[in-house]
Amino acid sequence: MIEWKISPEPVAYDDALAEMEARAAAIREGRAQEMIWLLEHPPLYTAGTSARIEDLRDPDRFPVHQVRRGGQYTYHGPGQRVVYVMLDVGGRGRDVRRFVEQLETWVIATLAEFGITGELREGRVGVWVTRPDKPRNAAGAVAEDKIAAIGVKLRKWVSFHGLSLNVEPDLAHFDGIVPCGITDHGVTSLVDLGLPVTMADVDVALHRTFADIFGEAPGPR
């Protein structure tokens, strides 16, 4: 069985990182079951291994945490559902690309629960939605906004970090960075798209769609 943990109050980033790494180690050693951890953070920025300092537009706005996961700068804060995914990828086929695709599919399936079409874009990480209500760009293309970010780390075939889905964050907080290094597109949320969705609604959708994507826990290796 996979443990699902929901933290009702914002969790400090350093505390979450320590707990996540400890749990991943315990999974590797066979001392703990896999876990999905749903939480929020106080406002902060994280810099992944590909982050460029010029993409940190306002370094004094919120704390900046250097993290050893893939990706560039991301924002975390209240109103954003952070999903830390501690899964035994080794027992699930040892296919990192497939694992990332499963995370993307999971986000898209969760958005579909609310009638939102999430899409992937070549060369742009995360999950995107089209915004026909916004002005088209200079090339005449329909505007697109990012609604979810994905950044994972594997250590000895156990994953940690994960994804973040914008439910109702303060979108102005993204202005202090270039999110994931992408300058030509905006950021949105479920509430910004006009949906009266709560964090609890999103948690139910995440749980409901998970098994269809990832199946049950793997057996002994």
Overall description:
- The protein is α/β, with parallel strands linked by helices and 221 residues long.
- The chain contains three helices and eleven strands; from the N terminus they run βαβββββαβββββα.
- It has helices spanning 13-28, 96-112, 199-214, and strands at residues 3-6, 35-39, 44-47, 64-66, 73-76, 80-86, 119-121, 124-131, 143-155, 158-166, 186-187.
- The strands form two sheets. Strands 1, 2, 6, 7, 8, 9, 10 and 11 form an eight-stranded mixed β-sheet that branches.
- A hairpin with a 2-residue loop joins β9 (143-155) and β10.
- The relative contact order is 0.20.
Helix content: 10-25%
Q: Describe the biggest sheet?
A: 8 strands, mixed
Write down the overall mean pLDDT: 92
**Tally of contiguous helical segments:** 3
Calculate Rg over CA atoms: 17 Å
Shape designation = globular
Ranges where pLDDT stays below 50 over 5 or more residues in a row are: none
Helix/strand-derived category reads: alpha/beta
Number of strands: 11
For the terminal residues, how far apart are their CA atoms?
16 Å
Beta content comes to: 25-35%
Secondary-structure element string: EHEEEEEHEEEEEH
Keywords:
single chain, alpha/beta, 221 residues, 11 strands, eight-stranded mixed sheet, three-stranded mixed sheet
